[in-house]
Amino acid sequence: MSGKLHVSNLGKSYRHWGSELRRFASWFFPSISPQKEHWVLKGISFSISPGEAVGIIGQNGAGKSTLLKIITGTTQPTVGEVQLTGRVAAILELGMGFNPDLTGRENAFHSAGLMGYSRIEIEKAMPEIETFAEVGKYFDEPVRTYSSGMQMRVAFSVATAFLPDLLIIDEALSVGDSYFQHKSFDRIRQFRDRGVSIMFVTHGMDDVRTLCDRVILLEGGRALKDGPPDEVVDFYNALIAEKENTKLTVEQRREKNGWLLTRSGSGEARVKSLQLLDANTGTDVAVAQVGQRVLLKLQATIHADIDRLVLGYMIRDKQGHVIWGTNTWHTSQVEQDIKAGEIVTFELPFTCTLGPGSYSVSPALVSSDTHLTDNYEWVDNLLVFDVINASKEYFIGSNYLDAQFNISRKIEESTE
Ligand SMILES: Nc1ncnc2c1ncn2[C@@H]1O[C@H](COP(=O)(O)OP(=O)(O)OP(=O)(O)O)[C@@H](O)[C@H]1O
């Protein structure tokens, strides 16, 4: 069987009655309505096909956990429907389902039983659960003596001890240390390669980019976006910056080369032009060579007087991973008191030590070290360029290290 999920027009509301008496009276007099009704999810519809990995992102309180709880049957929806086929393994809130007085082993037994596995199946899987969790002697101690990371280790090991059709994870992994996070992501990746459908909530945008085929952005209980990871993550990033603004100005356009251009900002400063040039000749560079001296040149037009102007750059590879990034705040080169009508030119010469591949440059015109204070203009993937290796010895990876082998030989001296 393969995991398939179909969610249609899902909604969840919490009712506030004002008083217990009012709630009680409503059982007998249906005309008595709650004082307030708060919809934490509304109009959510989507499907997950077998083998698809879907990330759920959104700010605190957006409704992510509620959605997963409804899908796993922990909470009932107020309206809508969930159709689910296949065996589900879920790791929801930490500690949920674990009895603090039972040991890790006993809880593991109990959880696997609830998932529908027989005593024999669980006994067979137990050594593997214990080994993967790596909590040592604590496995036979009561769970109340565990740290939250240890609880998560056991919860993850049990939930993934049997190959499910659909794996659901709610942020739990974030409490693990980096060693266990790495190990669990590896297991999740293996599951995905074996056709398991995956749905997980995370605040780690890099995890979303590397692991997901699709991302759903929840905002105020609604699915604001559902699409490819780069599109949704870049949109989300812009959305956070625009939160203070009443009008959302995020523009997205998929370019012919496949890169997605996302532009957002309040517009006091805008990018007039961005070029990659040869540092010696000043000519445009579309294909840079490993080791070439190049120059990023950006011109910004100022549309309103601003106190401070900072330029930030992010260079990303084709998978969306940031290869390098900094800004003029960190380099102590903040421009002060800029007047409307000025043009500010920034030049950044550097040696191209990137490995062969396709890269993008995302500039941001802001006022401090983050775009969350003022986002004048941020453009994801505005400039795209390729790197080829025409003059250096062969190497792989996204970084050219100026490294050389030193090799020496000698005859092993006799010890007799
Ligand atoms: N039992 C409840 N009664 C009333 N409101 C609730 C209840 N459970 C959740 N909510 C509300 O539902 C909304 C969505 O909560 P949810 O936990 O799903 O958000 P989330 O996106 O998972 O947030 P976070 O990133 O902080 O975990 C919040 O406004 C929360 O206050």
TrEMBL record:
Family statement drawn from the similarity comment of this UniProt entry: Belongs to the ABC transporter superfamily.
Superkingdom of origin: Bacteria
Protein name: ABC transporter ATP-binding protein
One annotated Gene Ontology cellular component of this protein: membrane
Keyword field contains Hydrolase: no
Entry-linked SUPFAM superfamilies: P-loop containing nucleoside triphosphate hydrolases
One Pfam family per UniProt: Wzt_C
Domain ABC transporter: 5-245
SMART domains: AAA (SM00382)
Molecular-function GO term, any one: ATP hydrolysis activity
Keyword annotations: ATP-binding, Cell membrane, Membrane, Nucleotide-binding, Transport
